[in-house]
C-alpha cells in the first residue's frame, strides 16, 4: 500500500504469513494517559495533512493515510489489535479471525450481533458481501487486487451495479459470510483486515462519489467533507464499545485540514501553541526538518518513529528504457546519500539494496550493484559506453512537495554525470498514485514507496512486478517498472502454490534477486516514518502495519 509518501500496499500467496514482530515501537509517544490514569473524553482532535486522501471509499482506499482515517469510520471483517508488543489479528465485524476449510480454499466468518450504522440499522452479512462486490466495478477503481485474484469467478465479474451477484460469496444467514477461493490462501484473514472488506449498505451506496458519503459503522461518521479543504468527523451515536475490540470513541470530533505544506505543519506542531497542542500529522515529517526534530529531546514525548514494513524506490520503466545496460548504469549512478538526504537522512531509514525489507518474510540480504551508497560512477560510465554512449532525455515523476523535488534534483544531478538528461514532472500529491498508476501516464522514471499489506513478501513483489496485472488494472497498475519478465512471473506463480513457509520465502528471495538482475528498480531506503503530535494529544499507538500513528485510542488531554 502506498503511504502517499508512505506508499500503497499490496499481493498474493498461500500458507500462513508469519507475523514478525516489527521492531521497536515508537520513540516516546504519549500513548499513556492524562495524569488521572484514564483517557480524557471530549474535545476536538485536529489532523493536519498536506493533501486530501486519494480515497475514503473503503473499496478504493490503497494509501496508508486513507486506510488509517477509514479505521475511524468503517469496520472490517478482521483487524489488528496493536496495543501489545506486536500486532495481533482479531475479529472486528467478525466474532473471530475466521475459519478455513477445504484446504484454506473456503473461509467462513460469523458477524457480531448489534453492530450499527450511523442511522441505527444493523450491519449484516449481505452488506459485507455487497461491499466486497463493489471491488469489481470499473467505477470503483484503485483498491487492492486480492478479491479479483482469489474469489472464484472474480475474473469475469463486473460488480453489483447491473444487479448481478458474485456466487462465490455466500450469506447463508444474516450473520454468516462464506468466501470460496480459487486457490488455498492460508492468510486470507489478514487480507480481510484491509478496508475493502467493510460493509456498504446498498441503499446508501452512491457509486463513484461514495468517497465523501461513506456510511459509518465505526465510532465516527462524516459530518462534512469539502474535498482538498476539510473533513470533519463526529461521533456515531449508534456505535457501541461493547461490540468493538479495537477502537475507542474518546474525542467528540476529528477535524482534518488539508493543504499546508509539510514543513509548515512540522513547525506548527513543534511550536505547540493554540490548536497545535491538540493536533497530529498523518504524513511524515518533511525531509528538511527530520534530522533536527528527530534529535530534539524536548519533542521526545510526542514524536513517533514508526518502522515501516516497506521500501522507498525509483522504478525504471523497462518498456521505455529498453537497454539493460542503461538501466544497470542508472543503478550504479544514483547517489543514495543525497537521495536519503532529501528525505531527512539517517532518521528516515537505512540504505536499501533489495525490494524486500528486513523483517518481511522472504527477505534475503544481497547487493547486485554499488557497495558504496554514493554509487560507482566509473562502472556506470563503462556500462553507458557499452550501450553506445546514448544521450537520452528521461522524465521522472515525483510528488509536488519540497522533499520529493529535492529527491528529483538528486537523481537529475547523478544521471547528468553519465549523459542522461532528466526532466522533472511534479504531480499533485493528492492525485499522485492515481496518476502514475494509470497506464496512460508513463514516465521513464517514477518515484514510489510501498508498504506491505501484511508483513510477507506475497504482499510486495507480486503486486509490484507481476507483468500480467498491467493489462488487468490499466487504471490501478502498481507495476511502475512495467516489468513483464516471464522468469519473474513464473517465480510468482511458483511461490503462490507453496505451502512450506521456508521454501516459499526462499523463492521470494530468488524473485527479489531476479527483479534486481532486470534492473527494473533502484531500491533506495528501508523506511521509518516519523510524525509528531501536540502536547495535549494522548493515546496514539504506533501502527506498524500501516506505518501511521493510529488514532483508534486517541484522546485530548484537558
Q: Can you describe what's shown?
A:
It contains 15 helices and 21 strands. Helices cover 24% and strands 20% of the residues. With 558 residues, it is α+β, with helices and mostly antiparallel strands. The protein has helices at 64-73, 125-134, 146-150, 188-191, 262-271, 287-294, 324-333, 336-343, 377-386, 402-416, 432-436, 461-465, 468-472, 486-496, 501-517, and strands at 44-49, 78-81, 88-91, 99-101, 106-110, 169-173, 176-180, 220-226, 230-235, 253-258, 279-281, 303-316, 349-351, 393-399, 421-427, 445-451, 521-532, 537-538, 541-543, 548-550, 555-556. Helix 7 (324-333) runs antiparallel to helix 9 (377-386), helix 8 runs antiparallel to helix 10 and helix 14 (486-496) runs antiparallel to helix 15 (501-517).
